[in-house]
User: Fold FAD dependent oxidoreductase domain-containing protein from Adineta steineri.
Amino acid sequence: MIRVAVVGAGVVGLSTALCIKSQHPSLSVTIIANRFLDATTSDGAGGLFRPDQRFIGGVEPSVLKDWCQTSFDHFNNLIFSNIAAEAGVSQVSGYQLFNDSRPDPSYKDIVYNFRHLTKEELTIFPDHYKYGYFCTTFYVETRKYMKYLTKLLNEKQVPFIKKKIHSFEELAENYDIVVNCIGYGAKDVCHDNLIRPIRGQMIRVRAPWIKHFYYTDDNCYMIPNTDTIVLGGTRQLDDENTTVDLNDKDGIWQRCLRLCPSLAQAEILWDWAGLRPDREPIRVETETIKYGNKQLLIVHNYGHGGNGISLSWGTAIDATRRFSSLLNGINNQDKQLTSKL
Ligand SMILES: Cc1cc2nc3c(=O)[nH]c(=O)nc-3n(C[C@H](O)[C@H](O)[C@H](O)COP(=O)(O)OP(=O)(O)OC[C@H]3O[C@@H](n4cnc5c(N)ncnc54)[C@H](O)[C@@H]3O)c2cc1C
Assistant:
């Protein structure tokens, strides 16, 4: 029996564990993480799908397109199923507003209704942005979606172990394949200098009259989720502080209020700050590490930056493909050994 440990229980770890267990039901798959559900970065994210090649460095355009389309199709299927509410997924349309013109985003042929804003539309907004897009995409409310994934994993009897890993060597005795979905944790566990935190802070409010999302190029965004709206934001490279900063909060509030003055009537719910696990490129690949005479096979899937919710299903499917190739390799070795005996 091949023993598999998926390390990490954010949206990437849960999705990858589910894909692997669904594809290989007879394997023993265990999830190991030191934080779960609302203690993960994934829990706080706004969850809007808009992964643009320009901000996802080092990933081949064809690979990114595959991840985007696979994720989009997966979430679209959920949106038009009878479990959309439980999974916390929904379509949402909205505006992106800029002070200068820019190339169309790479996801423009994946989302629906993508178009440029007219001059007349641009005048609606207080700061009179010079350029903008409109499109229909979707959000994933990870607080609900991760509970939904956890339920599916429980149904498949996948056990969860709460434990902090310092080195994958700790797992070499009890597992044959490790699937590494530890997000920013890779900095310490893998000594990966390519991974860098991009701090983001946000305010959750209740303002049910706001139905569209808005993104501007001056650090202001609003993303409706089911019952709340996420107001952001900040992008602070190499800042590891996850406590809420009151100056940042004030900046976010003033910028959002300027764009949407009716927010003055909103009920403020909670503040949150988290670290986008940024890596160029996002790491989806296999590796073999030797510890003495033990060898551990690893499938990496981490470093999704500000797009981990959007790309979670696409990279999980890619990681599962790589996992299946490793498994074939092990099975072929076993067959060769048996035929020699
Ligand atoms: C402010 C903000 C807004 C965002 N908005 C969006 C958005 O609109 N759309 C979008 O797609 N993405 C967004 N993101 C990005 C998204 O949140 C991340 O890309 C995504 O959550 C990464 O998921 P993950 O599973 O890799 O990491 P995480 O959610 O951080 O999970 C990592 C897991 O690994 C475990 N782990 C780490 N180290 C160890 C260790 N040593 N031992 C054991 N376990 C370990 C953790 O406990 C956790 O379970 C946003 C992020 C922020 C901060």
Observations:
- Residues 308-340 form the longest helix (33 residues).
